[in-house]
Design a protein that fits this description.
- 2 copies of one chain form a homodimer.
- Chain A has a single domain (about 5-295), classed as Farnesyl Diphosphate Synthase, CATH 1.10.600.10.
- Helix content of chain A is about 75%, strand content about 0%.
- Chain A contains 15 helices and 2 strands.
- Chain A has helices at about 5-20, 25-35, 40-55, 60-80, 95-100, 105-125, 130-145, 150-155, 165-185, 190-215, 215-220, 225-230, 235-260, 265-280, 280-295; strands at about 90, 95.
- The longest helix of chain A has 24 residues, at about 190-215.
Chain lengths: ~300, ~300
């Protein structure tokens, strides 16, 4: 079965469990809205690609790990879009969860998705229960306090933050979890896989900052220029557009260097290359270059 | 070590982990505010009492389970107090988390506490890793969708809800988790312990409804009369004060009957009796009776 199909099947199963008889219907619909149809599903793809590179000895566990990470990502989007944070009306070109179902359902949908992520991981570990404690510990560490994506988001509530710390926690950590859990699901060591995910995740966040400053709202499915309006730390605010583009290229390079040598290394570097093109399409790079030139002149 | 000390130690350890170097300080303080000083810690006490009745073969796992349940409870209080739900300025006689640290920190503190609960459980399972998958599944089921406390809270967003379904999910389910996880932590079967927790939890919610209608704000540490103001489903709205008091007594009786016979049964029934007195002190019962008499007259 193709990677995409494995991911969608694992997510569909998790959603079906949450929609069993007796579930509050409005929240059930809100949770589904947050997960389907998805975005690029890059994190679970990364997770499955690393599991494959490590031998994929328990594909059901790898699928569960990929789905768990995607559910955590969806939870973070729902809560980040709330009125008290980004107050985003759109996500993936559709109304955000709070815009469609109200703030209360959005808070609860995020909560439900976090729980669903851990549940999915636990249920997927039936054949390899001894791998579960380590995978749970990694997932918690990369999502919660003190350095996970929740902590990353919390830096927006502080008066001062170092940009690398913020981006490492806010986005890098869940990408690191994707590669680490992929390895652990296959019974391999996680530590040698962390760097690849971490660097790619930071590159992803920098690309997001560049698209926010130079992208087209229709193309990326959400409003642009929000970092500036909300005064959020961003690579563009810190380095300027040209500096941010250079920083992005450097991070992608580092991610490539961090791929452990082995049978799957070429496939993973190809995935990295394709993802870097998808993150910053030529059109956005051209716009960014043009805007940077105007700013210099 | 006494039960109370075991619980506080497990919670303190979880908080210390979340406050490690590099944690966003404002969120770290908000998370601590949500957990310390605590309320009655009835859920973890229940968990440890059941673990003891089942032989307490892995006390570290029982402690972790009790702490995990309490952290989930704290998370639900923080999110339920948010402006979009109860908009509660006070909790346990102090400012609620959103009142003290703002709405954004309150959303993230709840998220962090949910993650911390699962993390605490996973780290506590070092000596009995094979018990972890089942415990994770129970904790997820009793917290998330379709029937856990998150689902229970979501019934407040629906146009219509059957009161028993609402109260069973909103409060009963986490009490059920407390008894079930206590049994599982000791390597015992969970199913025979579910009823005890479930009935006690429903009694707890009915007592909360009665205190909301007839209690003294200063005594219970939060504003009263909120169910009526917010139009929330409540046992008092459904059955009147007298009916709610009768319902409470009946639920406590059922909880007592549901305690499995065995060496710990007497201790558990004593705990139930003490808890029922604490939930509805004689003064509140007298006030409720007097108010009911006035309403009838």
């Amino acid at each position: 079965m193709h990677t995409e199909a494995r991911i969608e099947r694992a997510l569909a199963l998790a959603l079906a469990r949450s929609e069993a008889r007796g579930a509050p219907p409005r929240l059930a619909t809100a949770v589904r809205h947050a997960v389907m149809p998805g975005g690029a599903r890059i994190r679970p793809q990364l997770c499955l690609a690393v599991a494959a590179a490590c031998g994929d000895s328990d594909p059901a566990l790898a699928d569960a790990a990929g789905a768990a990470i995607e559910l955590m990502h969806c939870a973070s989007l729902v809560h980040d879009d709330l009125p008290c944070f980004d107050d985003a009306p759109l996500r993936r070109g559709r109304p955000s969860v709070h815009a469609a179902y109200g703030e209360r359902c959005a808070v609860l949908a995020g909560d439900a998705l976090i729980v669903m992520a851990f549940e999915t991981l636990a249920l997927g570990a039936a054949a390899s229960p001894l791998r579960l404690p380590g995978m749970m510990a990694v997932l918690s560490l990369r999502v919660g306090m003190p350095h996970g994506i929740v902590a990353g988001q919390a830096w927006e509530c502080e008066d001062w933050v170092a940009l690398p710390d913020y981006q490492r926690a806010k986005t890098g950590s869940l990408f690191a979890a994707a590669t680490e859990l992929g390895a652990l699901a296959a019974g391999a060591d996680a530590s040698s896989w962390r760097g690849f995910g971490q660097w790619l995740g930071e590159a992803y966040q920098v690309a997001d900052d560049i698209r926010d400053a130079a992208g087209d709202a229709a193309q990326i499915g959400k409003p642009t220029g929000r970092d500036r309006v909300l005064g959020r730390p961003s690579a563009v605010a810190e380095f300027g557009l040209t500096g941010a583009l250079t920083h992005f290229e450097r991070l992608v390079e580092r991610a490539g260097e961090a791929v452990p040598e082995g049978p799957g290394a070429r496939t993973l570097r190809r995935l990295l290359h394709a993802e870097s093109e998808r993150l910053l399409p030529a059109s956005v790079r051209a716009t960014a270059d043009a805007m940077a030139a105007v700013q210099v002149a």
